[in-house]
Request: fold
Amino acid sequence: MAANVSTAYLESLPAVPDWLNKGDNAWQLIAATLVALQGMPGLVILYGSIVKKKWAVNSAFMALYAFAAVLLLWVLVCYKMAFGEELLPFWGRGGFALGQGYLLRQGALPATTHLRKDGSVETAMTEPYYPMATLVYFQFTFAGVTLMLLAGAVLGRMNIRAWMSFVPLWLIFSYTVGAFSLWGGGFLYHWGVIDFAGGYVVHLSSGVAGFTAAYWVGPRMQCDKERFPPNNVLLALAGAGLLWMGWSGFNGGAPYAANIDASIAVLNTNICAATSLLMWTSLDVFYFGKPSVVGAIQGMITGLVCITPGAGVVQAWAAIVMGILAGSIPWFTMMILHKKSSLLQKVDDTLGVFHTHAVAGILGGTLTGLLAEPHLCDMVLPVKGSRGVVYGGTGGIQLLKQIVAALFVIGWNLVSTSIILLLIRIVIPLRMSDDELLIGDDAVHGEEAYALWGDGERYDESKHAGYSPNDSRYSHMSNKPVGKRFWEDILKSKEFV
Reply:
């Protein structure tokens, strides 16, 4: 047995090069899978359940399409635009990430070598101990989830063909810019901005872009805006649960290794999410007199978003502080401020992604500038000596960096999202027709989420199974409306007595 174990680590094996760390590779693949599960099926289930019944299929499909479309474009051109060699200070040089020679070599982010002012190397290029294939897939899952989150702002009215055009364009011209600037070795990365796992790259960008898209697409029908109840709250909880559990991969995979900082990130993630959920629920009870399941889901999300930019660089007590603020400030902006703001009222943000992702994202980035702990920062950041305001020293400069980076992400997404949608609008209407909006899924996809007999339809034996049309025992019921009376007749018949 011992010989077999040692043989597995021999460098001579073609699948085990000397640079491969099997533990790191295993964790990174698991983390990538957890992030992917956040989107598919997590967000697909959540979106399909938390919207009105007539939009369940369309909402789930928008998320599903984004996940698939992003993956293909990611390996064709976008991975290298986000994590390849520098083309511009905010953009990488695009190209294929498909060749065997490229995918099997050791992972590397070529633009991440950080130099001191005198030109000497302060932090070497990021080279995790696993292949490029693992790195490419891990980073795809973040890009895919970002587009799926953005979709939440335009559910229930965006033309599906416009959405299918928007996804690849926004990935190329918006997401890759933020990812390279903050993660791939761009100007914000080398300046020392802290975005541990995507508070800015994923959440602030999707929240701002979603709000901008909601403005250009236009509102839902008035009847949908006034009444938009979830069609399945329990299933929405299932989707939210996948989102929460998958977030351990989201933040735990950010250090690119199965190291002690990954452990801190995972613990902080769950502490902040739980605290925020409880805070949001408490405010619901205090202000509205009862707890809301949908509100608890929103509080969970704001906690997860808020901790993301600082998950691996703040202490556990700080995660509680961030959770309290994540469950209260976005709650206030969504439940109180939104109703009083004429600007916010003009934009129909279906699931409130502006509050849950943009507000929570900038809150998390700002709090990271306050609470980032120096020792943890030195473990993972290219600029050594980084710290939050509460630890003195250069903390004030760090907070300034966090604010400037947030303004860059906001500005870029406002402009790029607007230009993309205005160009699409020239050839494809951004909003569905009134007829489609009135009917919903059946008009857009020819499908409905639930085949319920109580919807006023008559039982059509040519389409539905259940009994044989040649069976004389049930011939007296074949033309009756389905529903309660149908089942009463079945149960009264002698064959069921």
Summary: Residues 395-427 form the longest helix (33 residues). Confidence is low (pLDDT under 50) at residues 456-461, 463-484. The radius of gyration is 25 Å. Strands lie at 86-88, 91-92, 114-115, 121-123.
